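Quick one, T. Sequence first:
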Amino acid sequence: MIAVKDIMTKDVVTVKTATDVAQAARLLLENHINGLPVVDDEGRVVGIICQSDLITQQKSIQLPSLFTLLDGFVPLTSIKHLEKEIQKMSAVTVADAMTSRPVTVGPDASIEDVATLMVDKKFHTIPVVKDGKLVGILGKEDLLKAFIAHP
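Structure tokens:
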């Protein structure tokens, strides 16, 4: 069985919550990666910012559908969801655009479990954490390389 630690990228490019979103976008493009772990000063993962988080800034806002009930308007979608979407669209720092509390895996997890997680949850990048600290990152490209090396 191949474990995450055998194929993960150990030299991880990271950002802080105060990093400008334009700088995060540059790092994603320059390093040809889909996601950046967001870490605190102790190296703990507090979020992840992906290409899709930054692309959100370019989309148009979808106003919630409403229906009338007893002369009042009731939204069919969550106002909280709309507020989060607006926050991401107007983000200036990584803190405003990132996904907080991302799913992480341990270095001893099997690549089969990670592949299942990526496919089922549509994740492209997963931080690898040991004892609460970032030790690596695993992307779909890492899984493809493992597949080629060990068909």
